[in-house]
Design brief:
Elements: E1 11-17, E2 20-26, E3 32-36, E4 40-45, E5 48-55, E6 58-63, H1 64-78, E7 89-99, E8 102-111, E9 118-124, H2 130-147, H3 156-164, E10 168-173, E11 177-184, H4 202-209
Antiparallel strand pairs: 1-2, 1-11, 2-3, 3-4, 4-5, 5-6, 7-8, 8-9, 9-10, 10-11
């Protein structure tokens, strides 16, 4: 007779991103809150997903897909069609690495050429972190699907999906390093997943983000450059 699966538990992972903290909170029902304090949040509540961007103290709340569609349209209008190169990234396993007291496997992704810059990721199969990994992988996949035709490398999307399928990142380096600091399984108050303001549509968000009052450090993300040969 098979043993029962362990009950799901709330989990909070905190990452260091430069001088700031990126937090990922997931409850046992699948609601989540990904936050870079004072700049943006990703929220899932009762099955619906939202993006929150702050203008000073005012939160702008929009459905996630509407936000992705808006950003994708802007990228397509601003990005030359010739941006994508025919060079492919190669994913390679490097070895074991410990981050924040947890062990994972270091992977690199880059052009298969000596001296080329590479994406680095230490991925963990720790089941305690699996809810966090699932949220991050889903977020990456949604962005890749929205921005797929303006990505700088021919197989960047497939490579990132393959990488995030390997577990939860303990450390990730693209343009900056994100490093796991701590993990907690303390119960999360349901109020943490409440929307901080009314939901607005994409056109209203676009108008708000065009004002000079926006405090988010990145309003419309640009595709990362291909690794330099």
């Amino acid at each position: 007779m098979c043993a029962p699966l362990p009950a799901a538990a709330d989990v909070t992972a905190r990452y260091q991103l430069g001088s700031e903290e990126l937090s990922v909170e997931v409850d046992d029902g699948g609601d989540y809150r990904v936050e870079l304090a004072g700049q943006f949040m990703l929220l899932r509540r009762a099955g619906a997903e939202y993006v929150v961007i702050f203008q000073q103290s005012e939160p702008c709340v929009v459905e996630r897909q509407a936000f992705l569609d808006l950003v994708a349209a802007k990228l397509r209008s601003d990005t030359p069609r010739s941006l994508a190169t025919q060079q492919n990234l190669a994913l390679a396993k490097v070895g074991d690495e410990a981050v924040g007291g947890r062990r994972g496997t270091l992977w690199t992704a880059g052009i298969d050429k000596p001296g080329a810059n590479k994406i680095e990721a230490v991925m963990s199969a720790d089941p305690d972190l699996a809810p966090v990994g699932k949220i991050l992988a889903g977020t990456v996949d949604s962005a890749l699907r929205a921005f797929g035709d303006v990505l700088p490398m021919a197989n960047l999307g497939d490579t990132m999906r393959e990488l995030f399928a390997k577990g939860t990142p303990l450390r990730f380096v693209l343009m900056a390093e994100v490093r796991l600091k701590s993990v907690s399984t303390t119960a999360i108050d349901a109020a943490r997943f409440a929307l901080p303001g009314p939901v607005i549509d994409a056109s209203t968000l676009d108008s708000k983000l065009s004002s000079k009052r926006t405090t988010a450090t990145v309003v419309v993300p640009t595709p990362p450059p291909p690794p330099r040969p």
